[in-house]
Amino acid sequence: MSAFQKETVLSVRHWTESLFSFTATRDPGFRFQNGQFAMIGLEVEGKPLMRAYSMASANHEEALEFFSIKVQDGPLTSRLQKISEGDIILVGRKATGTLITGNLIPGKRLLLLSTGTGLAPFASLIKDPDVYENYETIVLAHGCRQVSELAYGEHVVEGLRNHEFFGPLIRDKLVYYPTVTREPFRNRGRITDLIASGQLFDDIGQGSLDIETDRIMLCGSPAMLEELPAMFSARGFVEGNHSQPGHFVIEKAFVER
Question: Which intervals of the chain form a coiled coil (predicted)?
């Protein structure tokens, strides 16, 4: 258990029947870069039961925040969804992950493309002042099946817009693009299709995909993480990693979860 820190749950909020978020205390020694993930979980029968979770909180915040799906028969999430204030969770002492700006070649527009709980690392990144220093525009796209599943993302973005410090900073830089596939909504369709057709860029009133200026981060469903990299690669975009920055990066840690 020495690889994990015990933290206390501070709050829990259930957004839908299948989505919830929670905050917990943060050990002063726990360091991470915005966009990274850590192993978190619960002690079950004396043993740690852990899964990879992106920090939805920024590295300058005192508390940790996580955004999770509820899987009724999931080994961890079937238990984790029942936590309440005062409960103890385990947090790994080391953070890692590819969704960090250092893995990208410098550019002008940053596209953060997510589905479902893949929004979590980008909730962290859009709270990073350096991101706004390094890019002229940040586009946060979040795809879900139903409108209700957008609630957490809307809450995060609204909080930033009303924030004393971030409000003025993001006003002209952050573009939030929620889209759904199964209900009427102002934006409809899969992110993959909206990128391929150029509809997403038309909807936000910006230019189409440009390898010279666009840098991209991806986190979400296996289908999206298969289709979009193939599309980008076909257009000459190169995937980046810790040793060689590129035009786009993918978080693969959650694909098998």
Answer: none
Q: What's the average model confidence in pLDDT over 65-88?
A: 95
Q: Let me know how many helices (H) and strands (E) the chain has, helices first.
A: 8, 11
Tokens of 29: 């020694």
**Number of other residues whose CB lies within 10 A of the CB of residue 162:** 9
Enter the tokens of residue 68. 């999770």
- Cβ proximity of 56 and 67 under 8 Å: yes
Amino acid at 159: G
164-203-225-128 Cα dihedral, nearest 10 degrees? -20
Nearest to 85 by CA among 136, 10, 156, 159: 10
Q: What is the DSSP letter of 187?
A: S
Closest C-alpha to 237, from 192, 229, 250 = 229
CB atoms within 10 A of CB 72: 9
Element (H, E) at 224: helix 222-234
CA distance 103 to 233: 16
State the DSSP code for 175: E
Token pair of 62 as six digits: 């005192």
Give the model confidence (pLDDT) of 130-164 as tens digits. 999 999 999 999 999 999 999 999 999 999 999 88
